[in-house]
Amino acid sequence: MGWVESIQKAINYIEANLLNELTMEQIAKVANSSVFHFQRTFAILTDMSIADYIRRRRLTLAAQELINSDIKIIDLSYKYGYDTPEAFTKAFRKQHDMTPSAARKKLGKLQSYNRLVIQVSLKGAEPMNYKIVEKESFQVVGVKKTYNCKTGENLQGIPLFWDEVNTNGTDDLLFQLNNGKIEGVLGVCVVDESQKDSGLMDYWIASARVGDVPGNLSTLEIPTSKWVIFEVHGPMPHAMQDTWKQIYSEWFPSNPYVPAGTPELEVYSNENPNNADYYSEIWIPIK
């Protein structure tokens, strides 16, 4: 089963069980995937976490039921998984910009999130430039933080991490230390395979380095791998995000490879990332 088919099967499972308790472990199992890789792929393709999708869909259905029936708001809150009417009202207001009581009186516009249908998009007018190479293991040095992918913490946390590194001078230091097999500063996604269903990932900002390592930095060994390397052209972050979507919605469904599950790399050059012709790369280990 391909990535797209797996995700659609999981979405169908979510939709059939929206009024039941759902766990990331159950959903990922339906897709025959680890929690980390399913959540990451889903987020790349949809720009939201699984938790966000479930919440938005439940509140969409709750709003429809609210205006089309006489169910009590307290009963509606319990039905859609909220422990208290207050928690339901807070979440409802955040999505629909009005209280459940106001929605029942039809005092404003509701925001509806429809059921997702994942489709493969093949666009010959937007070719993907890539190459496949094999590289021996190498060392990177840098800093890391751990994020919970089940909650979508990585989606908000990683951009803030980059802001921090760019502000405190670590980014400049990593460019200075870079003398290894890959030129540039790297964003590295790492999952401990022994804990892959925990939903936790380490995200490194690092550079390839041979030799001594400053005491304020840590080291990570990138294993020997077969890599598919994609060119990315355009300003950050949109060019990188768009290329990730192309990879999972177009390239993997059209090729006989799957991700190997070892660290993936984003490679950034020391140029202005806002330039229209900014060049970067995505490295994915494959099998």
Chart the SSEs and their pairings.
Blueprint: H1 3-16, H2 24-30, H3 35-46, H4 50-68, H5 73-79, H6 85-96, H7 100-104, E1 130-135, E2 138-148, H8 153-168, H9 170-177, E3 185-190, E4 200-208, E5 218-222, E6 225-233, H10 238-251, E7 264-268, E8 279-285
Antiparallel strand pairs: 1-6, 2-4, 2-5, 3-4, 3-7, 6-8, 7-8
What gyration radius follows from the Cα positions, in whole Å?
22 Å
The dominant shape is elongated
The proportion of strand residues reads: 15-25%
Q: What do we call the CATH topology of the largest domain?
A: Multidrug-efflux Transporter 1 Regulator Bmrr, Chain A
The residue ranges in which pLDDT falls below 50 over 5 or more consecutive positions are: none
Number of domains: 2
Name the helix and strand elements from N-terminus to C-terminus, one letter apiece.
Answer: HHHHHHHEEHHEEEEHEE
CATH architecture group name of the largest domain: Alpha-Beta Barrel
Cross-sheet strand order for the largest sheet: 1-6-8-7-3-4-2-5
Give the helix proportion (percent range). Answer: 25-40%
Question: Major β-sheet, in short?
Answer: 8 strands, antiparallel
Average pLDDT, all residues: 90
Task: Report on this structure.
The radius of gyration is 22 Å and the shape is elongated. The two termini are 15 Å apart. An eight-stranded antiparallel sheet has the order 1-6-8-7-3-4-2-5. The chain has ten helices and eight strands. The protein is an alpha+beta fold and 287 residues long. It folds into two domains: 3-104, Arc Repressor Mutant, subunit A, CATH 1.10.10; 130-285, Alpha-Beta Barrel (Multidrug-efflux Transporter 1 Regulator Bmrr, Chain A), CATH 3.20.80.
